[in-house]
Amino acid sequence: MVSHAAVGPCCRRVSHLLLTIDTMSNMPPVIEATPEVWEETRNSVAMHFLGKTSDEFVRLYNEGAYDEDVPGLMAVLALFPELD
Questions:
Q1: CA-CA distance, 20 to 5, in Å (whole number)?
Q2: Helices 35-50 & 54-62 angle (0-180, nearest 10)
Q3: Is position 26 within any domain?
């Protein structure tokens, strides 16, 4: 008989994997955005939250124009992984 301590971490990882797979089976299929749709989405979100186009937002962000407490900033940054 194998002790629980010997298989515990492995079983938890397997359980987590099974939970992830089961959770994902209830999700709609992933549809990848075209570059045009992605840019339109980024523009739309930046405009909605900050009143700026995506290009304006990137320029201003790189210039340090935004404090971390600006409402909506984190929602916009989520679509700009290159700014991380």
A1: 23
A2: 70
A3: no
Total domains in the chain come to: 1
**What does the block give as tokens for 39?**
């840019």
Question: 17-39: per-residue pLDDT in tens?
Answer: 444 555 566 778 888 889 999 99
DSSP string, 51-65: SS-HHHHHHHHHTT-
Q: Which amino acid is at 82?
A: E
Q: Which domain holds residue 46?
A: 35-83
* Of residues 6 and 28, more confidently modeled: 28
Of the chain, the end-to-end C-alpha distance in Å amounts to 49
Measured distance CA(29)–CA(9) in Å, rounded: 31
15 located within any domain: no
Residues 41, 7 contacting (CB under 8 angstroms):
no
